[in-house]
Automatic annotation (TrEMBL):
TonB-dependent receptor plug domain residues: 120-235
Membrane topology: Multi-pass membrane protein
A Pfam family it matches: CarboxypepD_reg
Organism the protein comes from: Algibacter miyuki
Keyword Lipid metabolism among record annotations: no
Residue span(s) of domain TonB-dependent receptor-like beta-barrel: 332-888
Protein name per UniProt: TonB-dependent receptor
Keywords: Cell outer membrane, Ion transport, Iron, Iron transport, Membrane, Receptor, Signal, TonB box, Transmembrane, Transmembrane beta strand, Transport
Signal peptide interval: 1-21
Keyword set includes Ion transport: yes
Entry superkingdom: Bacteria
Length: 941
């Protein structure tokens, strides 16, 4: 009896064990060349949906999996996703798989530009993807520099990491000044980096690329009209590493390099991710860098970094994600370089297109704050600080599948931002025989005439002594000593102090319902921003040469007291050139609906509507020069503080609401499983940005709202992926209407800066963009993408202020029918890549065609080519090394044109008549960045 009981006990126990038997699933994921794929995303479709990722050997493992039948999905950017059904009924299951290359990621699901994510082949949009490999082939010179790899995208990254310009398909006009991301949205994880743009305040200030970036999705035009906040020109979405893995994985990257004429670069990146248990996963990482700059300055050009993280809880219906970012970063931006010879520009005044920065050197000044003169407050100023950008952001992203084929996603983010600019604006040639040189120190209050002494502000050594009296008789100044100033001139520059703050909240709620042949999405998006800006500009004396030296300047006439035109640091006309003190509240509210209707198995209709309401409320302070005998300090012999602009106490308020409906309709016809044809029409709108209020209404009422620009776009495209060849090609037409244009000008008689009255214009662009990849052999890959286009300024007028605030001699010039400036007719990237065993290499050719330098079509920027190259070696399974060079042959291509080389000039002032009358005049161009080489070590585990 005892034995029977014992047998029964073991039998029941065994049955119970078998009823709950658990096993493990493991395997190795490789590519077609049998190389392991690191970071492949593995999803086991169970009641709790388990996730993991492959390690550096391509291995993965699930433990404690109950016996049963499951779907195992394996995906990785750059490879075709596969799903296999597996049966688990033993102690361990081994599943090895080979992923086939998805050459253009056409079988990859994209999130950007759609409320219901689909593969690129199924989408009726023009989307390109950059994966981790493409990101690592680029020297980290900023967000815009990376996006040069996107087909059809024009990039001007000549200023450095920030103050960049980006646009597509000729939708560019309002992005040509200092709001270079005007029509497009820079996003991180599906939400904008910033809601606000205005002069010297764009989203690139608060965005850096590092190892936490897993991929980039770039949408050009099209559905951006209905899927993005006030950004009909496109969306550039940087997606952070967020994949879940049961094992701890990470990567450390160290970089060092040389830029330009031997300027050093050092950087460290790191990322770490893994499981915290109970279906909680984390990813965290960031970078720190020290960059002496691509051009020659006497200070560190960039330093700082960021930290990002996300914490994800996965359940059977979806996920909950908490994410955040802390950015604390200093960088700067380059101005232009002087040139002569309108037909074939050459660097002038001893400058060099590759090495000259022409920025003020580092010095510490203390400039009275015009807002608080009674309290004696000052602003510390040092050009070495450049722009100090700080951004703290935290967000929540929730996705859940509901019953009856419903799902919900709500992504929200709060951020607080500050950008403090301390840099120089303008670096124009000011002759010692020019009245402006002596008027600017105090706006002529009083005008210094006689013996002017220039001393090195750092050492106190006299550099030159002149008599400027002869200029009143129309003659040249005279030197009174052996000392000379370089080029007989000073640099027309200003201390550019800006302090910008913004507290922002943004969210997007999307509900999705699938039924029958419809996939319906609807919801609403909200963006709230409370922003302020203070701008103050003072004239500064420095030499006009490759390495500017600050000048302390005095008037020392015999038998007269010494009059100080500048302070000890060389700063003059304290706060007298610029003054802006403004604040605004912005509310963007949009509701949208989108339906993807599968008319047949091969034909889909994608129809979206978006109603957007944007509310702007704020005010600008009026200002007037501070008047007191002897200036702020009461000393008649210090004229540099005689003209400080200060608030009058009056404010000009604005309170405007912009409402508009945008829509987009697309068709996608699937010719085969690997080929599709699509077409789309989009009607979009662009509400004014804050620069409309902050720039155009100095000391005048803001009586009217800005114009909403209208954007019409038509596109027709073909996408196909074959075994060794893939391509997309899109024929497009775009029209931009109600473009408000205002020029930044300087009145030499009153020494005042002003913006001309706005003129409203329109443009059209017809073009073809393409993206191809060819893999003829296992180890070789060729890529070719670009755009051919014909951009036209169909209706275009420019206000000519004739160099003064006085309107009596003003006129309007008509340039209708001219070619749209800065848009090349031809732009392409061609590259070849090799990878075999442990060795990899690539070479890229980037071609930017001829562009008009202004709407007058009077000056052309020549076409230029840039070559990048790289060589990599896998030292062992964890450690790899790469050597990369950008602008390998040190091309001196010109990216931008800023007009005549005079203080306050602009590009539109260089008309054909001006050039004809001034054939030997110098002008200002902005060259592309010079050669950089970088050595990178990566350790993955």
């Amino acid at each position: 009896m005892t034995r029977l009981k014992l047998f029964t006990y073991f039998f029941i126990t065994a049955c119970a064990y078998l009823g709950h038997a658990q096993t493990s699933i493991s395997g190795t994921i490789t590519d077609v060349s049998n190389a392991p794929i690191t970071g492949a995303y593995i999803e086991l479709d169970t009641s709790t949906k388990q996730y993991t990722a492959t390690n550096s050997d391509g291995n993965f493992n699930f433990s404690k999996v109950p016996n049963g039948i499951y779907n195992l999905t394996i995906s990785h950017l750059g490879f075709k996703t596969i799903t296999n059904q597996i049966t688990v009924n033993k102690n361990s299951t081994v599943f090895n798989s080979v992923l086939n290359t998805d050459l253009l990621n056409l079988h990859t699901v994209v999130l950007t530009g759609s409320f219901s994510p689909k593969t690129q082949l199924e989408s009726s949009t023009s989307v390109s993807t950059l994966n981790t490999q493409a990101i690592k082939q680029t020297i980290p010179q900023g967000t815009a520099s990376l996006l040069q790899n996107i087909p059809g995208t024009f990039i001007d990254a000549s200023a450095g990491e920030v103050f960049t310009k980006i646009y597509t398909r000729g939708v560019s006009a309002a992005a040509e000044d200092d709001t270079g991301w005007y029509y497009v949205s820079l996003q991180e994880d599906d939400l904008p980096v910033s809601l606000v743009q205005h002069s010297y305040y764009g989203p690139d200030l608060f965005h850096r690329v590092d190892l936490m970036t897993s991929s980039v999705e770039a949408l050009r035009g099209g559905s951006a009209s209905v899927t993005a906040m006030n950004a009909p020109g496109g969306v550039y979405n940087f997606i952070s590493k967020h994949r879940t893995s049961e094992v701890l994985t990470g990567e450390v990257q160290l970089q060092t390099g040389i830029q330009g004429e031997g300027n050093a670069y050092y950087r460290a990146d790191a990322v770490l991710g893994g499981s915290l248990g109970n279906h909680w996963f984390f990813n965290a990482g960031g970078h720190y860098r020290h960059d002496d700059g691509a051009r020659n300055t006497d200070f560190t050009f960039s330093k700082g970094g960021q930290f990002k993280f996300n914490l994800t809880k996965v359940n059977s219906r979806g996920y909950f994600k908490l994410y955040g970012k802390y950015l604390n970063d200093y960088t700067n931006r380059y101005n232009g370089v002087a040139a002569t010879n309108w037909e074939d520009p050459e660097a002038a005044f001893g400058q060099d297109f590759n090495s000259t920065a022409l920025l003020m050197p580092s010095y510490d000044a203390s400039i009275p704050d015009g807002r608080y003169l009674d309290e004696g407050k000052t602003n510390a100023f040092n050009p070495a600080n450049g722009v100090h950008a700080k951004d703290f952001a935290v967000g929540l992203d929730l996705f859940q599948n509901l019953d009856n084929n419903w799902s919900i996603r709500n992504n929200m983010k709060f951020s607080t931002k500050n950008a403090n600019w301390q840099t120089s604006i303008s670096n124009a040639f000011l002759s010692l025989s020019d009245f402006t040189t002596y008027y600017l120190p105090s706006n002529g209050n009083p005008f210094p005439a006689g013996q002017i002494i220039f001393r090195n502000a750092q050492t106190g050594t006299e550099m030159a002594r002149i008599d400027n009296s002869p200029i009143f008789a129309g003659n040249s100044f005279e030197y009174l000593s052996d000392g000379r100033l370089p080029n007989d001139a000073v640099m027309g520059t200003s201390t550019w102090y800006k302090d910008n703050d913004a507290d922002e909240f943004m969210q997007q709620l999307t509900l999705n319902k699938k039924w029958d042949k419809h996939n319906l999405s609807f919801g609403f998006a909200t963006g709230l921003s409370n922003t302020s800006v203070f701008t103050q500009g003072s004239f500064a004396f420095s030499t006009y040469d490759n390495n500017p030296t600050m000048l302390q300047v005095t008037l020392e006439n015999p038998s007269s007291p010494v009059v100080y035109l500048s302070d000890e640091q060389g700063v003059s006309n304290y706060g007298g050139l610029f003054f802006t003190n403004s604040r605004a509240e912005i509310a963007q509210i949009a509701t949208f609906v989108n339906d993807i209707w599968s008319i047949t198995d091969k034909l889909q209709l994608d129809l979206g509507l978006r109603y957007e309401s944007i509310y702007h409320k704020g005010s600008n302070d009026r200002s007037t020069p501070f008047t007191q005998d002897g200036g702020l300090d009461g000393n008649e012999n210090t004229i540099y503080d005689n003209n400080i602009l200060a608030p009058t106490g009056e404010q000009d308020e604005f309170n405007f609401n912009y409402n508009y409906l945008s829509y987009s309709a697309g068709l996608n016809y699937k010719l085969t499983d690997d080929t599709s044809l699509f077409g789309r029409y989009s009607k979009g709108n662009k509400a004014p940005e804050m620069n409309y209020y902050f720039n155009n209404f100095a000391n005048v009422p803001i009586n009217q709202a800005g114009e909403v620009q209208e954007i019409n776009q038509v596109e027709l495209g073909l996408k196909s992926t074959l075994k060794d060849f893939s391509f997309t090609s899109t024929l497009f037409w775009s029209e931009l209407k109600n473009i408000g244009i205002s020029n930044f000008e300087f009145d030499g008689d009153t020494s005042s800066i002003f913006y001309t009255p706005i003129q409203f214009n329109s443009s059209q662009t017809l073009g073809l963009e393409w993206e191809t990849i060819y893999n003829p052999f296992q180890y070789f890959t060729f890529r070719f993408n670009g755009v051919i286009q014909n951009p036209k300024a169909t209706e275009w007028q420019v206000y000519d202020a004739a160099g003064s605030v006085d309107v009596a001699d003003d006129s309007i010039i008509d340039f209708s029918g001219n070619r749209l400036p800065f848009n090349p007719k031809l732009l392409f990237n061609l590259s070849a890549e090799f990878q075999k065993d442990k060795v990899s290499s690539f070479i890229k050719w980037k071609y930017t065609g001829k562009r008009e330098g202004n709407v007058a079509n009077a000056f052309q920027l020549a076409a230029y080519s840039v070559f990048d190259a790289g060589l990599g070696y896998q030292i062992n399974k964890n450690l790899s090394a790469r050597l990369i060079a950008s602008n390998l042959f040190n091309s001196d291509g010109l990216a931008n044109f800023l007009g005549a080389n005079s203080f306050g000039a602009n590009a539109n002032g260089s008309t054909q008549e001006y050039i004809k009358n001034n054939p030997d005049a110098s002008f200002v161009v902005v060259p592309i960045l010079p050669r950089s080489t970088m050595l990178t070590l990566n350790y993955m585990f």
